[in-house]
Amino acid sequence: MLKINQMELGPVQTNCYIISNSQKECLIFDPGEESKKIIDFLKKKELEPIAILLTHAHFDHIGAIDDLREAYPIPVYLHRLEKDWLGKPNLNGSGKYGMLPDYRMKDADVLLDQEKMLEISTFKMDVLYTPGHSPGSVTYSFGEEGFAIVGDTLFRGSIGRTDLIDGSEKKLLQSIQDSLLTLPEHMILYPGHGPETTPEREKMSNPFLNRF
């Protein structure tokens, strides 16, 4: 059984998820900022990170990846459609806000380009393509474990914004309908911001999804 730890990081409190197995290996999802806080946690729990997985490449989800790669020789996974975003502030959004530094990260090591079963050590997950918030947004679904990491596609009672580069409300709503609301009703959905939810809860109460 996998263990999930959540950390709220950076200026907009992005959820970073650290998922570990019984061998003390772990995956890091969306390390948005505060690399020291992440590294201190890994050391305290005696966890060995083996990969960083990004739901998408907006600045608030990528800020700690280079520091983590300096501390640990681990690969970064990202959808191919956003392969240039890590190093370009005008794409990852950091150049949009004057109070932020420009985020220029090194390229991802593994580019995802299709929906597939992804295996990393003992971790098994389905990669679901869920564009709309950004062109390369993906969801990592751990069906056997009953949870999914959905990034900024869907929130409790809300949906991801679509006014950033290459965002699309039509694609976002289609992604939610086709890929997230079709997951088991009680599956736990862990979003990029805020508390977790379930497909059942969002079908019943999300005002943006009442058409479904």
TrEMBL record:
<dbReference type="InterPro" id="IPR036866">
    <property type="entry name" value="RibonucZ/Hydroxyglut_hydro"/>
</dbReference>
<feature type="domain" description="Metallo-beta-lactamase">
    <location>
        <begin position="13"/>
        <end position="193"/>
    </location>
</feature>
<keyword id="KW-0378">Hydrolase</keyword>
<protein>
    <submittedName>
        <fullName>MBL fold metallo-hydrolase</fullName>
    </submittedName>
</protein>
<dbReference type="InterPro" id="IPR001279">
    <property type="entry name" value="Metallo-B-lactamas"/>
</dbReference>
<feature type="region of interest" description="Disordered">
    <location>
        <begin position="191"/>
        <end position="212"/>
    </location>
</feature>
<keyword id="KW-0479">Metal-binding</keyword>
<keyword id="KW-0862">Zinc</keyword>
<dbReference type="Pfam" id="PF00753">
    <property type="entry name" value="Lactamase_B"/>
</dbReference>
<dbReference type="InterPro" id="IPR051453">
    <property type="entry name" value="MBL_Glyoxalase_II"/>
</dbReference>
